[in-house]
């Protein structure tokens, strides 16, 4: 019996479109998550996600909520394309007669997360810098003594940050926080993809039929929020490591271990859950929307118009 083949180009197109639509819907919450996670004791500007969004609109306008969105859209397109397509690719090769064990589902998720991190870490780094810049500017206005000497008056662009990192630290500068990113995204994928697949299977119409779109959406939301909260401590570490500019009262970190030690000593274990609520609110609808769009088969539809090679 011939195995059903998957079209990797079509899966990549589906994943890219899914990411673009999903991130456009949830980006303001992602910005609030990043700014909440970057706050340390003694320099708290925001008390909650809603407080962060309200202050952002007041100080930067509506489009301030989309600070760094261009970089994030550029990030999420390959991220979702690689992650979703790679998971399908690995699942296809690990399955036998259409069946796959839980261990191999987790292994496929591990492979998908690893492939995605290698490609997207530099863009994740740039996104955090752009989101964090206006937090520092606004903080300097409200706390001039604590933030003295730490703020540039001109907003940097993604290209300027890239050139600065390459000039000062080389390629390694763009991969700052790679270890923490791997520790976050690989476990996330190991949790998310098997959980989503099994939840989605409950709503399938028959053995081979697809699940209704609302089942895929709910499954993506549940699996995404569960995985997001589970790996949030590592997300806090990654965000701290990738933030370049800090106030005089804020800690700097030499690496993952140093970051964990200083957070535990100065802020306590609860600091590792900073932004967990926001992260769950970002990831749940993002993956719910992305999975629905991914299963629409836009990539297959587009490629169907291309001339087929004669065998």
TrEMBL record:
Protein's membrane topology: Multi-pass membrane protein
Entry annotated with the keyword Membrane: yes
Claim: Signal is one of the keywords in the record: no
GO annotation (BP), single: malate-aspartate shuttle
GO molecular function: L-aspartate transmembrane transporter activity; L-glutamate transmembrane transporter activity
Entry's localization field: Mitochondrion inner membrane
Catalytic reactions of this protein: L-glutamate(in) + H(+)(in) = L-glutamate(out) + H(+)(out)
TM segment ranges: 12-29, 280-306
Keywords: Membrane, Mitochondrion, Mitochondrion inner membrane, Repeat, Transmembrane, Transmembrane helix, Transport
SUPFAM superfamilies membership: Mitochondrial carrier (SSF103506)
Cellular component annotations (GO), alphabetically ordered: mitochondrial inner membrane
InterPro entries attached to this UniProt entry: MCP, MCP_dom_sf, MCP_transmembrane, Mito_Solute_Carrier
Signal peptide: none
Main localization, broad class: mitochondrion
Solcar repeat residue numbers: 6-93, 100-202, 211-300
UniProt-listed Pfam families: Mito_carr
Function: Mitochondrial glutamate/H(+) symporter. Responsible for the transport of glutamate from the cytosol into the mitochondrial matrix with the concomitant import of a proton. Plays a role in the control of glucose-stimulated insulin secretion.
UniProt record similarity statement: Belongs to the mitochondrial carrier (TC 2.A.29) family.
Protein known as: Mitochondrial glutamate carrier 1
Species, as recorded: Astatotilapia calliptera (Eastern happy)
